[in-house]
Design goal:
Elements: H1 2-28, H2 40-59, H3 65-78, H4 87-96, H5 109-124, H6 127-137, E1 166-170, E2 179-184, H7 186-192, H8 196-202, H9 216-226, E3 235-242, E4 257-262, H10 263-266, H11 271-277, E5 292-299, E6 308-309, H12 312-325
Helix pairs in contact: 1-2, 3-4, 3-5, 4-12, 5-12
Length: 329
């Protein structure tokens, strides 16, 4: 609403003023057989100014500091000489992130969270950034909360019902030595009634995935890693689609980062419950194609900063770097 008032408020006021100006001219012009009252002109002039001032007051609001910051980023993208790929978005973010409006109370956690959410909202109003964030990070303006937690996929779910810690991780290929892949038919998921733990303990990953490390080598230390707050957390990711569409990566090939959730948070859940808790919209009763599979990837990080909590604070501070570095090796 504020954007509408900012854009159209002065226009509406000008139209109102123009209408009364024309009315004043009309009243001033003498007509045959009738004299014109001189008091009509000051009256309509006063009326014009009063209504115009009221319209401006009601319809126009000055831009706040976030609007100004957002406009600078949008202008930087629009004036970018290299209109291709993600360069313009990356370059604009690199230049302008440091110029964000300051946090009013830096030591106030709630204020910091609000500041990051406000910045994220301002960024997603810019079409080019909204498209880039969706394409390269899977961030959608209508579903990404930016609190670091998922909204479970159940009817009527709200952000306050978050069930799992959410992360953004590099879009690794399944052949990465720290990635293991499983694929199950919807019938297998329900019929076996297995938990995530059962899957890892009793079902071998796909032969096409990680061929360098046997998962049995990490089972002994997996639980210790999961519950050690000083370590980067092992994560799990779910997706459902036709096998013929799979291109061997944890996300769409063009994606740079993909969403995953803490393995510890869903480890003891049944698979179908874990999928819902992760925020993914899985439906075992709605397999549109005969080769539809539930793809499951587990990633155990062995390098710092690869598993990043999915918060607006992290997205804002790291998006430029992620776009600049490109696809993971």
């Amino acid at each position: 609403m504020q954007q509408w008032m900012t854009t159209w408020g002065p226009v509406v006021a000008a139209l109102i003023g123009g209408a009364f100006t024309l009315l004043g001219v009309y009243l001033e012009a003498p007509k045959e057989g009738r004299s014109r009252s001189r008091s009509a002109i000051p009256f309509f002039s006063l009326l014009f100014f009063s209504i115009s001032a009221f319209a401006i007051y009601q319809l126009w609001e000055p831009k706040d500091q976030w609007d100004i910051w957002s406009d600078k980023i949008a202008n930087s993208i629009d004036n970018c000489p290299k209109q291709e790929g993600s360069y313009c978005v990356q370059n604009a973010l690199e230049k302008q992130i440091k110029n964000m409006p300051p946090v009013r109370e830096p030591n106030n956690t709630a204020e910091l969270f609000y500041h990051d959410m406000r910045a994220g909202e301002a960024l997603l109003r810019i079409e080019q950034i909204r498209k880039s964030f969706d394409k390269y990070f899977g961030i959608k303006s209508d579903t990404f909360i930016g609190s670091g937690a998922t909204v479970p996929w159940v009817e009527g779910a709200e952000y306050k019902n978050a069930q799992a810690r959410e992360y953004l991780i590099p879009n690794f290929p399944e052949t990465n030595k720290f990635v293991w892949t499983w694929r199950l038919s919807p019938e297998q998921v329900v019929a076996r009634g297995m938990t995530v733990e059962n899957l890892i303990e009793n079902m071998a990953p796909d032969e096409s995935s990680n061929r360098e490390y046997d998962i049995s080598n990490i089972k002994q230390t997996l639980k210790e890693r999961m519950y050690d707050p000083s370590e980067q957390p092992p994560v799990i990711r779910f997706q459902q689609f036709s096998e013929k569409k799979y291109q061997g990566t944890m996300g769409r090939p063009e994606a740079l980062r993909v969403f995953a959730v803490s393995l510890a948070d869903v480890y003891n859940m049944k698979l179908q419950h874990a999928v819902r808790a992760s925020g993914f919209t899985y439906d075992e009763d709605n397999a549109h194609q005969s080769d539809t599979r539930l793809f499951i990837w587990i990633y155990i990080p062995f390098h710092n900063k690869e598993v990043v909590p999915a918060t607006w604070g992290n997205v804002i501070s790291k998006a430029s770097e992620w776009l600049k570095n490109g696809s993971p090796k």
